[in-house]
Design a protein that fits this description.
Helices cover 38% and strands 17% of the residues. It has twelve helices and eleven strands. About 2% of the residues have low confidence.
């Protein structure tokens, strides 16, 4: 049986995917293919390229506010000149691109060690653009498939949150965060050959007592509401849906919460292991589950 993992977007909350992956590996699940949108695409690309979860944990310290390379010069010119200067996004995205480029050695989809797909949205064509490491099977309407690409290009396109990052140009396309159209690519995992699919959704629209006194907080909340409504339909096609609740309450750009998100994803997946096994391997006799212990590598 081939298991596919679909990783949803969620900003910093995407670090929870690492905890989920670690828990699945410890429980003996072999992931055949992985798909992702936005922060989920970042984790999916590194995992597909061949990094272990522990190796990726070692990279978490590099995920800091410095990755947001705000285009201060453009903002300043906009303030001075008004309509004469066009501003498509606050951050250029070069630092995030360089991070992925460095970790993957500038590699292409062909260099991935397991099948993977990453979703972006085309502003001009109003369609999903799926960067896939191999041709996708079946009919996937409303999508353009790209099989020749650098992993850094796919991740940057998928992570280009509107207004925060400038749209990413790929050929004639103008691409933004894939969550605009598909925040948890379940169908793509099926099209990569998965028999069973685990979807990880990090959206959360529970009542939150906050003042929303900044543009970033407001934007994050609006995005979460829109994504949550969309994801309900998408994730209904998965065999198992995981929704780490703690990670879902983290601000989109709250870089202080990277470790807590990893821990939350790990604990949630461990506590859900009985349900996961029952859904994926219904005839398996399940042993009693011990209380999950978060690995010290996560805590430190």
């Amino acid at each position: 049986m081939k298991i596919g993992l679909a990783l949803g977007g969620g900003g910093i909350a995407g670090c929870a995917h690492l905890g989920v992956l670690m828990a699945l590996e410890e429980s003996g699940f072999d992931i055949h293919c992985v798909t992702g949108t936005s922060s989920g695409a970042l984790i999916a690309a590194l995992y597909a390229y061949g990094y272990s979860t522990r190796q990726m944990l070692g990279m978490v310290s590099e995920i800091t506010p410095k990755m947001l390379d705000y285009d201060i010069a453009a903002v300043f010119r906009k303030l001075l000149r008004g309509n004469k200067v066009k501003l498509q996004g606050l951050a250029k995205g070069k630092k995030l691109y360089d991070f992925v480029f460095s970790k993957t050695g500038g590699g292409t989809g062909a260099d991935a060690q397991r099948p993977a797909a990453f979703v972006a949205a085309d502003l001009k064509g109003v369609k999903q653009v799926v960067f896939a490491t191999q041709p996708l099977s079946g009919e996937l309407p409303g999508r353009e498939q790209i099989n020749d690409f650098r992993l850094a290009d796919a991740v940057m396109a998928s992570c280009s949150i509107p207004l925060l990052f400038q749209p990413y140009r790929f050929g004639e396309r103008l691409l933004v965060d894939g969550g605009v159209l598909n925040n948890c690519p379940v169908e793509e995992a099926r099209a990569l050959g998965a028999d069973k699919i685990i979807a990880v959704d990090l959206t959360n629209i529970e009542h939150q007592e906050t003042s929303y006194d900044s543009m970033i907080n407001m934007l994050g909340r609006i995005v979460s509401i829109q994504l949550s409504m969309q994801v309900k339909q998408t994730c209904a096609q998965a065999d198992v849906l995981l929704q780490p609740d703690g990670a879902g309450r983290v601000g989109m750009l709250d870089f202080r919460q990277t470790t807590s998100c990893i821990e939350d994803g790990y604990r949630y997946a461990k506590n859900s292991m009985g349900r996961i096994r029952e859904a994926l391997i219904p005839d398996l006799e399940l042993p009693a589950m011990a209380e999950p212990m978060v690995p010290s590598l996560v805590l430190h």
